[in-house]
Amino acid sequence: MDFNFTPEEEKFREKVRAFLDANLPRDWGSDDFEMPDELAGRAFYIDWHRRLYANGLVGMSWPREYGGQGASPVEQAILNEELARRRAPGPLGGIGLALAGPTIIVHGTEAQKKRYLPKILSGEEKWCQLFSEPNAGSDLASLRTRAELKGDEFVVNGQKTWTSGARTSQFGILLARTDQSAPKHRGISYFIVDMKSPGITIKPLRQITGESHFNEIFMDDLRVPRENLVGKLNDGWHVANTTLANERGTGALALLVRFGTQYQELVDAARIALRHGRPAVADPVVRQRLAEYYIDLQRLKYNVYRGFSAVIKGGKPGPEGSIQKLLWSELSQKIQEFAVELQGPGAQLAFKEPRAMAGGYHQRLFLRSRADTIYAGTSEIQRNIIAQRVLGLPRTH
Questions:
Q1: Which homologous superfamily is 127-236 in?
Q2: Looking at the domain that runs over 251-390, which CATH code has it been given?
Q3: What is the per-residue pLDDT across 43-54, written as a single tens digit (0 to 9) for each?
Q4: Fewest beta carbons within 10 Å, which of 34, 171, 265, 389?
Q5: DSSP 8-state code for residue 387
Q6: Nearest by Cα to 227 from 381, 354, 109, 315
Q7: From CA 222, how far away is CA 193, in angstroms rounded?
Q8: Domain boundaries, the chain
Q9: How far is CA 389 from each of CA 320, 373, 386, 392, rounded to the nearest angstrom?
Q10: Catalytic machinery residues
Q11: What is the pTM of this model?
């Protein structure tokens, strides 16, 4: 692997940094920066996406004919790195950009590509993911939502859960069973669903942080046009694997910078927190834990580099992404658990409590991190994928 960048790539990095200097608020990322209110925050993020898009920084690696830049994976990685390094927000509509769009590029019809891809890039249309069900989360292939072909439409009945952003999405990517007699990994089809269609009911789910970003979806005689089928009928599991591979592997370089930042924040917390009347960082046990997490971060880094090198050489995200997902999700939890542990009784203070260390920042991240080893496939599922699809080990019964 060559870790050096070409002069052209370094010039692109300078372009991204200049954009961030010119467009981010001056005190962005500091403890003093705060949005005036939720409405102002929403307006800021919409405007931010428009600025990224206007400067050719959305859908970097997408084909030019559909509104992308046709850039190399290295340029996309540089953009991700610089956004993460400045803690700048990424483009809006992550599910559309990271999951739905790349899947449509690979498996969609020409009409689907022309209709949906440009508006995903521009941010005009937001997407959600209709995969998980109450009894089919980690074992996704056990899904029970049914889609029956009647004339030129599929009639869909079933329930989905843990659907992020459903209330503000215009479209969703849906997995439904279209052949009830087929083995569970077959007989599934992949659809594009208009989220404003009659027959869809959305109910918010309150999370441990107090937010309600997740939702459960009920579909009662929902009608989906046949032209919204992505890929072949009953071949949805194959199509879904493209989505899942992108979910677990795309943007991993940005994650490296994100966790590098979180690690430094953990070190800062150890310098502020007291243990036996001295800064916690002076305690040899604390220093040992910090060293352990640093080693974990390096292990993640070189696994990400290995996967990224394969993509640069013409490959695509594969089952190896499960290694990265397993490493970063468990590292995230360990870092936040220790950041809270360092605070002692003060860890009980809530997010934005004035007396909390760093305003309760680590408390909030700790609560959010509980989901890291669940969404995009649990750690148990990732280990199964690594064992069977990466190492080639036999299934056990």
A1: Butyryl-CoA Dehydrogenase, subunit A, domain 2 (2.40.110.10)
A2: 1.20.140.10
A3: 999 999 999 999
A4: 34
A5: I
A6: 109
A7: 9
A8: 7-92, 127-236, 251-390
A9: 8, 19, 6, 5
A10: 247
A11: 0.85
3 state DSSP class of 175: strand
Distances (CA, A) of 194 to 77, 144, 222: 32, 20, 10
Output phi, psi for 157, to 5 deg: -135, 135
Rounded Cα distance between 29 and 20, Å, is 12
Partners of 175 in beta bridges: 190
* Phi and psi, residue 259, nearest 5°: -75, -30
Q: What is the pLDDT of residues 287-300, one digit of tens each?
A: 999 999 999 999 99
Distance CA 38, CA 41 (A): 5
State the residue for tokens 């428009």: 50
CATH superfamily for 7-92 is Acyl-CoA dehydrogenase/oxidase, N-terminal domain (1.10.540.10)
- Whether pLDDT at 254 is above 70: no
DSSP letter string over 307-351? Answer: HHHHHHTT----TTHHHHHHHHHHHHHHHHHHHHHTTGGGGGSPT
Q: pLDDT digits over 211-248, tens only?
A: 888 899 999 999 999 999 999 999 999 999 999 877 66
Q: How far is residue 369's CA from residue 337's CA, in Å, rounded to a whole number?
A: 9
């970003």: which residue's tokens?
213
In one-letter notation, the amino acid at residue 318 is G
